[in-house]
What we know:
Blueprint: H1 8-23, E1 56-60, E2 64-69, E3 74-78, E4 81-87, E5 90-95, E6 98-102, E7 108-112, E8 115-122, E9 131-140, E10 151-162, E11 165-174, H2 189-192, E12 197-207, E13 212-222, E14 231-243, E15 246-255, E16 262-274
Antiparallel strand pairs: 1-4, 1-16, 2-3, 2-16, 3-6, 4-5, 5-8, 6-7, 8-9, 9-10, 10-11, 11-12, 12-13, 13-14, 14-15, 15-16
Keywords: Signal
Organism: Gemmatimonas groenlandica
Protein name: Transporter
Amino acid sequence: MNPFLNAPRFGVAGLLVVVTALSAPLATLSAQTDYYNTDAGRPVRIEDAYAIERRAVELQLAPFRLERARGGSYRWGIEPEFAVGLFPRTQVEIGFPIAHVEGVAGTRRTALGGIDASVLYNLNTETRLPALAVVADVLLPVGAMAPDKAYPSFKAIATKTFPWARFHLNGQVTIGDAPSIAPAGSGTTASAELSRWLVGVAVDRTLPLRSLLLTAEVVTSQPLDATETQAWDVAGGARYQVSPRLAVDGGGGYRLSRADAGWFLTAGAAVSLGLPWSPRR
Length: 281
């Protein structure tokens, strides 16, 4: 069964949102110029240590992920996100993962897989030392495909820039036991990112004259369920600045281990706006 026959309901809706956002008047909004400021999942899981600018607002419009596991089963999901730079070097973000699964006998289900809220704080800019950041995140049990309880996570990020490339190191731990009862659609994008711990490294290279960033990563993680084996993923992708306010990205990769080994594809877009009020003088 071709997953695209059912998946586009939310994908088309996301595309309509993109078109609407691009056609809206943006004269009073601040411009996005940091296409190299990477976020988790756009296009790879490993992110850099920098927050969006203060008073900036970023709308991540329906980032899409399609997975094909060993055996030929497909699953897909989108996670619209809203990020705002409320304070200097501080990014607050909230996401709404929506997942679609196909079960036995041709059954299909699409539902919200939780609410994901996070705060990233950049500790310093790069000198001889790398830039460092910390992230606090929580996945809330909201939606038919959400986990049965809240799962807080904590992440440390380091970014080091060289004349020829940037390197990023991420380490994350999640607090909580594996769900005693698997939610409907377990293993979808709503819960697949949950892991006891995760470590990954990414390298990217910017092509400023083309407003293009190329990146690749290697990630290993241990699922919350101790009976599952450690996972290894390899992925790559690109992010392109279409206009001062719009960046698009796409990528793909392969899961090398576990029962759900197989390939995956990602695509997304982000529109950068600005808070409607002016700073006090």
